[in-house]
Amino acid sequence: MFDGFDDFEMPTEGARIRVRRSGQGTPLLLLHGYPQTGAMWHKVAERLRDRHTLVVADLRGYGQSAKPATAPDHAPYSKRAMASDMVQVMAALGYDRFLIAAHDRGARVAHRLMLDHPGRVAAAVLLDIAPTREMYADTTDAFAQAYWHWFFLCQAAPFPERMIGGDPRFYWLKKCGSGSAGLSPFTPEALAEYLAAWTPETIHASCEDYRAAATIDLRHDEEDGGARVECPLRVLWGEHGVIERCFDALAEWRKRAVDVSGRSLPGGHYLAEELPDLVAEEIHLFFTEKGSDLLQQEPSLRTPAG
């Protein structure tokens, strides 16, 4: 995976972030979901690297990125802290303005990034989520049963950590293999990386991610006073997944963003691995349409940093 990519770590104020970078063209930050790493983008990356300079990051707490100590309010694992990591990484690479494609937890980080740093993102593609605040507010029995992990992982430490730690491989395979496509989206190479990274430290950090989502992240959403994402947003979700069954994704995102388009794709939750050709095409077409002015007005974004 990621042949020809530079692979390195970058320091931020609160962590060290693992980054893989390659390609040419406008900078595109790729963010992963739970319980994965940046490896989830490996199929899409091969299809986009001739069109974009790709920056594939492991979120703090995941993969080879740092797992900083937490705090009683879970602030070190808030989406605000994770978003700040990504802004710092991109700035250090020379990209003050960039595109984002993000899945699952990474898409929640991207949402906070676009609110906290509105001038940084030219356009974004989000995979298979509705906004966190709206998903909690509209919880139904069907959603709670399908997304049971939301309500399990946010329990006080060390309860979920101990339960998962009893058989971490079984948990990972059961959690990620329970969707409509089973484990078929995951190549052996990607699966090996995910399981190798599923350490006690990652398990604890990922629980903190969900504890933050249920507490401080919601407070940050409320403190925004109804602020909406201003850059163009493309929302894609699996027609065989929970978002399709339980939410009106476009209606929910239009509560939180000004310029929203999107559609379902014929897959489940792990779209980038299940339907890489289609996801890459959607990303390319959307950024070609919405990023044309950016390309013309900011030619410095067309080449990699140093």
Automatic annotation (TrEMBL):
Keywords: Hydrolase. InterPro entries: AB_hydrolase_1, AB_hydrolase_fold, Epox_hydrolase-like. Residues 27-161 form the AB hydrolase-1 domain. GO terms for molecular function: hydrolase activity. This is Alpha/beta hydrolase.
